[in-house]
Design a protein that fits this description.
Radius of gyration: 17 Å
Helix content: 10-25%
Shape: elongated
Largest sheet: 4 strands, antiparallel
Length: about 80
Amino acid sequence: MSGGEHARVTAHGDIHAITIFPADRPVDVLDAWAALPDGVGFADAFGDVEVTLVFRPLGDLLPPGPPGGMSGAPD
C-alpha cells in the first residue's frame, strides 16, 4: 500500500464506492462502511488486490413489485 492510504468512500451522484487496500485493517474497512449513506445496497465488486465495492440506491437494486401489490405467494 503506497502513501498510507486507508479504505475510503467516494461518490458519483447517488452511486457510492468503498475502495479497500491490501494493508487495510478491519477497522479501516468498518469506518468506510459506516460512512455510507442510508438507503444504499451492495451492487458490484471490482478488483483482486485493491477491491472496490459499489453501492447503489436500494430502489435501483430491488425488482419492481407485481402489479396491484399482490405478492403471488400462496396463502
